[in-house]
Amino acid sequence: xxxxILTQIWNQRRTNSWLFAExxxxxxxxxxxxxxxxxxxSARIQPKGYxxxxxxxxxxxxxxxxxxxxxxxxxISRFWWHPLSEVIKNFKQYPGVESVCTSFGTDVYSNNTMFxxxxxxxxTTNIFTANIxxxxxxxxxxxxxxxxxxxxxxxxxxxxxxxxxxxxxxVSAELADSLWGxxxxxxxxxxxxxxxxxxxxxxxxxxxxxxxxxxxxxPYIMTPYPEYxxxxxxxxxxxxxxxxxxxxxxxxxxxxxxxxxxxxIAPFYIFxxxxxxxxKQLDDASQGVTQEVNNTILMxxxxxxxxxxxxxxxxxxxxxxxxxxxxxxMAMGSSRKQTxxxxxxxxILLLAIAALPGTxxxxxxxxxxxxxTIHADATILRLSITLLISFILMTIITLIxxxxxxxxxxxxxxxxxxxxx
Length: 421
Known about the structure:
- This protein is 51% helix and 17% strand.
- By secondary structure, it is of the alpha+beta class.
- The protein has two domains: 2-46 and 288-420, no CATH class; 68-266, no CATH class.
- Helix 2 crosses helix 12 (380-410) and helix 11 packs antiparallel against helix 12 (380-410).
- It starts with a helix and ends with a helix.
- Keywords: Cell membrane, Membrane, Transmembrane, Transmembrane helix.
């Protein structure tokens, strides 16, 4: 049957030429839309390297009338950092709170970023930039950051102190690979390019990290607070992890209401508490990701709908104009099922033949690096999957466009159809 259909397609090549041209153009355009969405989707499902589920960010502010500018480190420690540590200690005692952590530097779901250059000791020619995140020991537990390699099974405060002027550091897989070409680098030492006397020792290598859902993986380093932070009146980012059974829609309101009334530690007060889902939405909106995703989905939906109407109309007209052929086939003894299979197979073969030059065009677009690669690399796997998805979508549209008019034509008596011809 397939051989007879291919012969029929060849004999009708002039009639089918416009249909082939339409199928090729539609296939390429549909593939491009699918490729953009696939890039966004593949970036979205990649692990971020941390778990923000049940995590809240607590914003603590200070009262100007109770704040005094202090110059010496002892005063700052006594009247600023000690009261702030008491505030954080109170957070840990709140029912349902599993852990509390603080950080400075590149923040999760935020435009607040901090970069620094690093190099292997003795090699100042190869400098690698990384996001830096100053954290306390609880940060790893709060965000449940998975480790590829680690010296300590559970990071504690005593493990998070400098030894012989060498700071402990947790590096991401990207930074480890950039510096040493491997991720098995426990105990390796490296230095800060801009502060040559600042040295680090790798105590753990974390899973790949990225700042938000749709970003690419970037090099990261997590290390204890530097001395200059304790000499300034700064407020770190404060995060709390809530136990799953205690996390609900009323937790944030209950927390801020209870803690605001309980905490009277000058000069601090709780300003706000929001879940990380809230900051994710803000980050997506500020980066234009939400609008990009919505626009892409809307554009693709509109395009697919127009493709559906166009192909439906084309195959409908084409099938409807062959009512006489359908009548003859049925008069010669073909059943409705056999006739339907014949026309559906013909449509799929037409699409498959048109998909070959369409695929060649897509390959050239991919090879010329004209695809959207902001969120994900243009790999062979991505190209293969998007081509397959595009072909499946086109197949579904083509089959619907053939089946509806064919079924309608097959319910007409052969004599009546031949009389109309």
